[in-house]
Structure formats: structure tokens, C-alpha cells
């Protein structure tokens, strides 16, 4: 990206749209960058510092010595001890994109390809509305992955594991997540039925041993032992004691 390309950026809402001519497939069509306001502010601060070096070198990003940044991933990996690459990022986005609806995953997959056919459709210079639409698909994938990671790390805060409490119904569980303040950080994230089911599996698996102990005591109190216990008897006692939800997850019913 050059200084002039930054200076020629367009604004739509709070987002900046930059057309970059020289990139990996720049010989075919320009690429577009969509930056949110926070990143735009940081870029603008850098731009003001960058101007002190003048326009002798057109590149927007330069080293401390004013030279062109050539191997950005090598520099990042050396500084942070990481193992990043453009290919790795592409694979990460493609993998996360598969968890979304067909339209979203298709757009993401196509936008990341560099074939002649894809270049003609996705690297031509689009209008601002089309750029935002495409970026929305990428934002959705990224935000969803980050939100899921946060929920899994703070699972107990969202769904406290209590043996006598059933996992919330699907709609309620979704609202617990989407109405949390964390959504302010990931507004494009999407929570679907499959993900809620996975959360319930984790919830029930965590409580499995404790619930088994509860059922054992209930069966003893009801007069059952190894000689006369049966699956029907367990279900009957669970219903009478209003803990039938212990058995609602078919994945774990047999283990009880």
C-alpha cells in the first residue's frame, strides 16, 4: 500500500475503504481493504509520523530506517516468537468459514482464492457497498471464532454448572450470549443451534458424575437395588423427582 492510496481512501459510515493496486495478484485487479474506526485511527497516527520521512519512498509502511518492509511475517515472527504466514491466516479463515451458512462460507472461500476466475469476480474494483458486504462475511467469521473462544474460556460465567439446574433452552442460551457485553466487541458474531448443542453437551458432561450420584441416592430411597433396577424404573423415579432433565441428553443417558 502506498501513501497516496491511503490519502485517497473512501469513508463509509465509520469504516475506511482503501484500494491497493500492488499486491500478490495486483497484476490482475486491485485489492480492497476495509478498516474499522479503531484501526483507522491507529493508521492515521502512523501516517502523520510517516510523513516526516517525506515522499521519497511511496510505500506507506517502512522500517525504522525508511526502507520498504519486504518480509513482514519474518519480522513479526522474530519479534514475537510466532510462526505466522499468509497461508496460515488463509487456512484459519477458510476453516472458520465452513461453520457458517452456505452463502457466507462460499463468499469467504472465494474471496480468499487467487485463481483467474476468482480474481475477475472478486478482485475487480467494486463500489463501496459491495466492499462492505464482502467484509461483513469476513467479520462474521472472525467475530464468531473470537466470541466462541471467549465463551469457552468463561463458560462458568455464562452457564454455571449446577446439578439440579437444566441447561437453558436453545433460545435462552443464545440470548445469554448475545445479550452479554462481550457482543460489543464482536457485533458480527453468529450463534447457531449446532453451537448451542455443543455447549449443552459440555454442560451435561461436566455434571454427569454428580448427577449419577444423585440418581443413585434417589433410586435407593425409592427401594431399588441392583436386583430390581431397570431403565424404566430410573426414568419413572427421575420424572417423579422432577430431575428427568438429567436424562434428556441422549449422548449421556446410557452412561447413567
Task: Tell me what you see in this structure.
Helix 5 (102-111) crosses helix 7 (128-153). This protein has helices at 3-7, 37-50, 72-80, 86-97, 102-111, 116-122, 128-153, 155-158, 170-178, 193-221, 231-240, 250-253; strands at residues 10-12, 15-20, 31-35. The protein folds into two domains: 3-128, no CATH class; 153-247, no CATH class. The radius of gyration is 27 Å and the shape is elongated. By secondary structure, the protein is mainly alpha-helical. The chain has a three-stranded antiparallel β-sheet with strand order 1-2-3. Residues 114-125 have low confidence and may be disordered. A hairpin with a 2-residue loop joins strand 1 (10-12) and strand 2. The chain contains twelve helices and three strands; from the N terminus they run αβββααααααααααα.
What is the general shape? elongated
Q: How many structural domains? A: 2
Number of strands: 3
Q: How many helical elements?
A: 12
What can be said about the biggest beta sheet?
A: 3 strands, antiparallel
Beta content: 5-15%
For the residues shown, what is the average pLDDT? 82
The largest sheet has its strands arranged as 1-2-3
Summarize the structure.
The chain is mainly α and 256 residues long. The chain is built from twelve helices and three strands; from the N terminus they run H-E-E-E-H-H-H-H-H-H-H-H-H-H-H.
